[in-house]
Write a structure and sequence with these properties.
This protein is an alpha/beta fold and about 375 residues long. The strands form 3 sheets. A 4-stranded mixed sheet has the order 3-9-5-4, with helices on both faces. A 3-stranded antiparallel sheet has the order 6-7-8, with helices on one face. Strands 1-2 form a two-stranded antiparallel sheet.
Length: about 375
């Protein structure tokens, strides 16, 4: 039994216990933040890993991310983070040790375009569903110094004016309701958030939004109909993008085709733009934001970087906060959910190899399970998921 804030907690998963404990520490710390010179560094040994017996040795980066996000971690919280968060070496194995930002070579051209038009910079967020676009738009809203006479006071104004999930080719067909003024779409710098496709597909299984396909809960995303299937194509995917085109949907051959083709449209667009990996907004957020501010020539609103730590979509039950996102996206575990061998083989064949290489994303080494044992494996996975 653990007592937190007068509550007795029993039989709680370590990750949930950690999130609840640190949330308590975060909110209780806010009134003291300005008066605490060493805020966020109440972590025994965070700046020194001399003790070889320290369970947090080698994971100082994760500890610092949590601390810099506003959580004052005492000894209990520190121990919890070291047992629930992914080890830094696993994060770097998955994504490398540095952020991977594409399009920085177009920054000078964009600044020149803005200067010539005598306009203000317009960095705007785009991306597929379940890629952290809402949280990142919130982060830009909080951290960039805005011209209040031009910018709306709503963070969604930092989405592209043609709506963030809309394919690039339809950008002139629609203008978001968050734009009460006339904004020149040609002066926008799209910042496209892309997410590791296997983890992205698992999120799409849980919350597909307007993306619809014949998926099976037993082995979602159901890229192939059933174990042993030799079908060259998975269930087609229909996506509604609101008014583009009016009353219709855009069809893709499969979920992996949606990921590849949607991102490819932006990559091929002959305009200044940036591509940011969702994972870098978690593990390298401050460096990513600083790079964007320098790229567009905007000042920072605060002397220090301000993270978004709560769920960006409070109305969505399946939205996650920063702590949960760090834990889930820094591990190989559960990356494939209930995919079967044929799903993996289909993804390897149809995911854009160029995009996978550009973003330093990887496929699983070999086939993680035998198709002949697929039904047994699916049953085991379904039981573990409580289905």
């Amino acid at each position: 039994m653990v007592r937190i804030g007068g509550l007795s907690l029993m039989c709680i998963a370590p990750c949930c216990l950690f999130a609840l404990y640190c949330s308590t520490m975060f909110w209780s710390s806010q009134n003291d933040r300005r008066n605490t010179q060493s805020f966020g560094l109440q972590l025994r040994g965070i700046s020194s890993a001399d003790d070889a017996s320290d369970p947090c040795q080698g994971n100082e980066q994760i500890l610092q991310i949590v601390a810099d996000s506003g959580f004052i971690l005492d000894a209990t919280a520190r121990d919890l983070i070291c047992t629930t968060m992914p080890p830094w070496k696993e994060v770097t194995r998955l994504y490398g040790d540095k952020p991977r930002i594409l399009g920085l070579e177009t920054c000078a051209a964009y600044r020149a375009k803005i200067q010539k038009a005598k306009a203000i910079p317009m960095p705007r967020v785009a991306g597929l569903q379940n890629c952290g676009t809402t949280a990142f738009a919130d982060t830009l809203f909080v951290n960039l110094k805005r011209d209040e006479t031009i910018h709306a006071e709503h963070p969604r104004a930092y989405n592209v004016p043609w709506r963030k999930h809309t394919p690039w080719r339809y950008r002139y067909n629609i203008t978001s309701e968050h734009y009460a003024w006339q904004e020149d779409k040609d002066l926008v710098l799209p910042i496209v958030i892309v997410r590791e496709p296997y983890r992205w597909m698992q999120s799409m299984c849980k919350m597909p939004y307007r993306v619809k396909w014949a998926k099976s809960e037993r082995h979602c995303p159901n890229l192939v109909p059933y174990p042993g299937s030799s079908s060259a194509n998975g269930p087609p995917v229909n996506v509604s993008f609101g008014e583009v085109p009016p009353g219709e949907v855009v069809r893709y051959k499969s979920l992996v085709h949606l990921w590849s083709e949607w991102n490819r449209e932006y990559l091929d667009a002959d305009v200044p733009k940036l591509f940011i990996r969702y994972e870098d907004t978690l593990f390298h957020a401050e460096e990513v934001f600083r790079t964007i501010a320098e790229c567009v020539g905007m000042e920072q609103a605060h002397s220090t970087f301000q993270r978004t730590v709560q769920s960006a979509k409070t109305e969505r039950e399946l939205s996650v906060d920063l702590l949960t996102a760090l834990q889930k996206n820094g591990r190989e575990k559960d990356r494939y959910g209930t995919m079967i061998a044929e799903d993996i083989q289909f993804a390897k064949k149809h995911l854009s190899s160029e995009l996978m290489e550009l973003f330093h994303y990887s496929h699983p080494n070999g086939v993680p399970f035998d198709s002949y044992a697929a039904e047994e494996w699916i049953q085991r996975q379904s039981q573990s998921l409580g289905k």
